[in-house]
């Protein structure tokens, strides 16, 4: 499985990269159909008018490619690690739903 991690307006540190790889490996250890994953981390530099600071400006997006389907999740938070955690939770729910659908709709061979 190939995991591509890109940063937009920020540099990817080894700690962030290790965190992402660890979470994705844990998430997909029971699912061997994953072809590739693409993760994009970005930081929005907009300033909120009321608080004079950026709110929810660390954005994590991911695309997971399976045979015949692509899953997408996006999350934002004040901290990059929190946004990565939220994104992986969303993807985990999607993967579990996809896995349950596959188990439900398998043809019966008699």
From TrEMBL:
The gene is raiA. Belongs to the HPF/YfiA ribosome-associated protein family. Short HPF subfamily. Gene3D superfamilies: Ribosome hibernation promotion factor-like. It holds the Pfam family Ribosomal_S30AE. InterPro entries: HPF/YfiA_ribosome-assoc, RHF-like, RHF/RaiA. The lineage of its organism: Bacteria, Pseudomonadati, Pseudomonadota, Gammaproteobacteria, Moraxellales. Keywords: Translation regulation. Associates exclusively with 100S ribosomes, which are dimers of 70S ribosomes. This is Ribosome hibernation promoting factor. CDD domains: RaiA (cd00552).
């Amino acid at each position: 499985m190939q995991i591509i991690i890109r940063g937009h307006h920020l540099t990817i540190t080894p700690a962030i990269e290790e965190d992402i790889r660890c979470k994705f490996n844990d998430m997909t250890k029971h699912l061997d159909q994953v072809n590739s994953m693409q993760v994009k981390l970005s930081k929005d530099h907009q300033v909120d008018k009321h608080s004079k600071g950026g709110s929810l400006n660390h954005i994590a997006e991911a695309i997971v490619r399976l045979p015949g389907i692509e899953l997408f999740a996006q999350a934002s938070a004040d901290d990059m690690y929190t946004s990565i955690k939220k994104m992986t939770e969303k993807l985990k729910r999607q993967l579990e739903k996809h896995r349950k659908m596959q188990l439900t709709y398998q043809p019966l061979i008699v």
